[in-house]
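Quiz preparation item.
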């Protein structure tokens, strides 16, 4: 018996696999996310607008807690941070990884407990360190030799601060050269191969007010296979064994960072969380047993994989241009709300919403409204051939590293963020207006 004939093949571009789990098709080509029609959101809040599915963010936090039941899961705030997301992350029992006094203060003032926060950064300013100590962050991750004395002085002889050391394990992984951080040819961390990590460890152990709890590494971002993680894990356990042998100190924490890859277009590979968790657990137990080490508390730091798939960007088409054999579909946002295609050549799968088109699809380049030829939002987008000004485009997987990297270019203003949940939409972050730019422009 065969049932395949009964399954209707989805139309090109109709694959919802990368959309939030709550996404449903509406009549007339509409889509709803979190129970809210995206076209209605565009009407009510204007465009461009970013939609964040609250249930999807929470569900992804739960997936991590479930996959890593014994580990500490820290959400990497730089992927996207707002006071509401801080609350969701807190309620779901995750910790937070921040890279600046700004991220830190926003989180703490939104009610996040300081001791569940870890501060990173390759160049922490005096203000970053002052805020970290004032707000009582759980751990500070040391990323350069000079930071050790500065931090020890800031903590003071009577003080106490837990720290980790960021180690470069010499593992190349990540979706693009600009987001690979596991090898010695980039700015983050202290090298395992040239002795910098060893040197820093010895210096930290010599500072009584700094308590070295463990080691940290972060290989890069948009990693879709498990192998780089367990290679790094083995090297980190090896280093922990050497620290015990050299200094007689047994570290109790191992932070393997984030970087878990997600699909931006249907059919793209994503990192399997369950495979990662299973493999790392086994590897950790095995290599610790081999080295005669107690198994340290494990820490993971996902950013993109928590926030990315929960976001959808909405744009209005402003102009369509056919140039030679190319079609340019220009929308009312662009590199000021999403610099990722320009930075790393990332590709997205935008979709026409709010109108049903029967026109054959054609390949188009979705471009922004900014004064840069590189202001491309989606190359090779499959869109209906009759796409026209006034149409609405929705871009899934827009929740991470878009608004958090947004700029004021061309004084267009950064888009608002609207949370959707259980059929309701509410504004989390309002649109940036000309008044905001004027308010900062204080000289004449
Ligand atoms: C950016 C970053 C992360 C998160 O990376 P994702 O790719 O968003 O998972 C985790 N840890 C550190 C130290 C980072 O810099």
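Solution:
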């Amino acid at each position: 018996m065969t049932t395949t004939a009964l399954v209707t093949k989805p139309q090109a571009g109709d694959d919802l696999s990368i959309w939030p789990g709550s996404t449903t098709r509406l009549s007339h080509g509409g889509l709803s996310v979190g129970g809210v029609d995206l076209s209605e959101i565009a009407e009510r809040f204007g465009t461009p607008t970013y939609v964040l599915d609250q249930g999807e963010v929470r569900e992804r936090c739960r997936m991590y807690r479930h996959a890593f039941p014994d580990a500490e899961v820290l959400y990497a705030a730089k992927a996207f941070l707002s006071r509401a997301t801080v609350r969701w992350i807190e309620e779901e029992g995750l910790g937070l990884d921040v890279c600046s006094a700004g991220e830190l203060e926003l989180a703490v003032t939104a009610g996040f407990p300081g001791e569940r926060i870890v501060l990173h950064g390759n160049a922490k300013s005096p203000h970053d360190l002052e805020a970290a100590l004032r707000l009582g962050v759980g751990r500070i991750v040391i990323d350069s030799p000079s930071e050790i004395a500065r931090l020890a002085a800031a903590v003071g002889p009577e003080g106490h601060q837990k720290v980790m050391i960021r180690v470069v394990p010499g593992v190349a992984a990540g979706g693009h050269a600009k987001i690979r951080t596991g090898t010695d040819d980039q700015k983050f961390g202290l090298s395992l191969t040239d002795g910098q990590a060893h040197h820093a460890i010895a210096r930290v152990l010599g500072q009584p007010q700094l308590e070295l709890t463990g080691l940290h590494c972060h290989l890069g971002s948009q990693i879709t296979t498990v192998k780089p993680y367990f290679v790094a894990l083995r090297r980190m356990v090896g280093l922990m064994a050497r620290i015990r042998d050299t200094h007689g100190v047994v570290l109790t924490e191992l932070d393997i960072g984030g970087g878990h890859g997600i699909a931006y277009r249907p059919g793209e590979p994503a990192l399997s969380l369950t495979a990662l968790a299973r493999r790392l657990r086994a590897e950790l137990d095995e290599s610790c047993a081999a080295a005669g080490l107690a198994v340290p508390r494990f820490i993971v730091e996902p950013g993109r994989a928590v926030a990315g798939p929960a976001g959808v960007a909405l744009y209005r088409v402003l102009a369509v241009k056919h140039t030679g054999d190319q079609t340019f579909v220009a929308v009312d946002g662009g590199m000021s709300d999403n610099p990722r295609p320009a930075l790393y050549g990332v590709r997205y799968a935008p979709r026409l919403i709010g109108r049903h088109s029967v026109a054959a699809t054609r390949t188009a380049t979705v471009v922004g409204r900014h004064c840069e030829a590189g202001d491309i939002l989606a190359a090779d987008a499959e869109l209906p051939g009759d796409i026209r000004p006034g149409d609405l485009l929705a871009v899934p997987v827009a929740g991470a590293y878009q608004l958090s990297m947004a700029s004021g270019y061309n004084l267009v203003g950064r888009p608002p963020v609207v949370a959707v949940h259980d059929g309701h939409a509410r504004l989390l972050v309002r649109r940036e207006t000309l008044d905001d730019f004027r308010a900062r422009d204080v000289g004449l």
